[in-house]
Design brief:
About 30% of the residues lie in helices and about 30% in strands. The chain has about 450 residues and is an alpha+beta fold. Strand 15 and strand 16 form a beta hairpin. Bound molecules: aspartic acid.
């Protein structure tokens, strides 16, 4: 009887104490997006570089707030302001225009601690709509102000106002048409911006800001200022910011649906996001950035690209113009081989695109990384990246790379050695050799901890 009772008590207390999966695994975490939609492979180098730089600046601004113990709401506003001021994104300066050539801006912000939220729609003179949305939250009893009333409120609040021309960007085809410039044939201008954050006090926040969709009807409002559609945050589940065809996000209450799946169906953040991105929204519609109350970041898109980035207190700091399929922790060996092979092939394509930062992604920002080549050993992520940068000072010197003849050797349960052949086709001097990589399974992904490259004689 006593045994049964103590067993019962043990099970009872096990259920009472929070499971380790529920414990925050990081002190703070932040993710940003700069819009889903276009295919970055089709962009001019200049546009790719501008996007990357903008993402890094915004992520650093948000990170600085969280790292120093600041609030999630402040981090979200800080990151979004940087993106609104950057003309390569479709929010604030650089917004897309309505059919009749005007910028009408939408934004919203939500505090996961109190569920207080504020939003503006169709503003035409406010430099930073995200700041105005926050003022609607803190200075009025309302949630959403639209049109001329919102602009008047901006005047009243003495926030910086600008002339409508301020928003125009030469990246946008409406602007080009208006100024008799040839249309940018590459793609429509995407680039709505958003941010989600978890701060050191365990509070979540989310925000989104946009010029809407290109060539929209005057007065059209999308999902970005609609809490529950484009933005949502609640401390018991997650924070969400979406980007894509706003009408679809409104129809499916996308942002709230992620939180609802977690709250009522006890689903993981990853499962909830995957469900929406693969089962509810049609392919090609958009993307999402999310962070859970434990600091897990999940970002997905079903469009060719999504500008985005993530950072957390473990030292993670990465930005992307598109995401490769994320590996998953539960794979068996065969699966692990498949995932690692996919990472290696993705690296080949990132290298061939001249995208060194994406190429370095599987290394993450680790001090433990060892890279050896030509008898020289480099330690740490930053040193390895710097040595690549030195060796390949520009895209032209990098050339097309291929990896082949992959062989896998299991090292315990959570590590894998991979050997293979590399080839670099450059105009003047194609080179190649063997490589050995050691991958370690960490949390939800595989990371390269050792890389040895040898050059074979021609
Ligand atoms: N969701 C935004 C809207 O429909 C557009 C975008 O994310 O690109 O207004």
């Amino acid at each position: 009887m006593r045994i049964i009772l103590s067993l019962f008590l043990a099970v009872f207390f096990m259920n009472l104490s929070p499971s380790s999966a529920d414990e925050p695994s990081v002190q703070w975490a932040i993710a940003i997006h700069g819009g889903a939609g276009g295919n970055p492979a089709k962009w001019e180098d200049r546009k790719r570089a501008a996007r990357k730089e903008g993402l890094e600046k915004a992520l650093s601004a948000g990170k600085a707030v969280l790292e120093s113990g600041g609030e999630a709401m402040d981090a979200v506003e800080a990151a979004i302001r940087v993106l609104e001021d950057d003309a390569s994104f479709n929010a604030g300066r650089g917004a897309v225009l309505t059919e009749d050539g005007k910028a009408e801006l939408d934004a919203s912000i939500m505090d996961g601690k109190t569920r207080a939220c504020g939003a503006v729609a169709g503003v035409t003179r406010t430099k930073n709509p995200i700041g105005l949305a926050r003022l609607v939250m803190s200075q009025t009893k309302h949630v959403l102000l639209a049109g001329p009333g919102a602009d008047e409120f901006a005047e009243e609040q003495k926030v910086p106002l600008v002339k409508p021309d301020y928003f125009l960007s030469k990246f946008d085809n409406s602007y080009r048409r208006k100024n008799n410039l040839a249309a940018d044939a590459s793609e429509p201008h995407f680039g709505t911006v958003g941010c989600v954050a978890l701060d050191q006090s365990g509070n979540l926040a989310a925000g989104t800001s946009t010029g809407g969709t290109a060539q929209k009807l005057p007065g059209r409002v999308g999902d970005s200022p609609i809490v529950g559609a484009g933005t949502y945050a609640s401390n018991d589940t997650c924070a969400v910011s979406g980007t894509g065809v706003g009408e679809e996000y409104i129809r499916h209450s996308v942002a709230y649906d992620i939180a609802a799946q977690m709250r009522y169906a006890n689903r993981s953040l990853e499962d909830a996001v995957t469900e929406v991105m693969t089962q509810r929204l049609e392919q090609g519609v958009g993307g999402l950035i999310t962070v859970s109350r434990t600091g897990k970041i999940e970002m997905q898109h079903n469009t060719p690209g999504m500008s985005c980035g993530a950072a957390d207190s473990t030292g993670r700091f990465d930005t992307h113009l598109k995401l490769a399929a994320e590996p998953d922790a539960g794979e068996d060996r065969e699966n692990a081989e498949r995932v690692i092979a996919a990472i290696i092939h993705q690296q080949a394509s990132d290298w061939s695109d001249g995208d060194l930062d994406a190429f370095m992604k599987p290394y993450w920002r680790s001090d433990n990384l060892t890279f050896s080549s030509g008898g020289k050993v480099t330690r740490g992520f930053d040193a390895t990246l710097a040595s690549y940068r030195k060796r390949y000072p520009d895209k032209a010197t990098m050339g097309m790379t291929t990896f082949s003849d992959l062989e896998f050797l299991k090292l315990g349960d959570d590590a894998m050695q991979v050997i293979g052949t590399w080839k670099l086709d450059r105009d003047k001097d194609p080179i190649g050799g063997k490589f050995t990589l050691v991958f370690k399974r960490i949390d939800h992904a595989w990371k390269i901890v050792h890389d040895h490259t040898s050059l074979l004689a021609k």
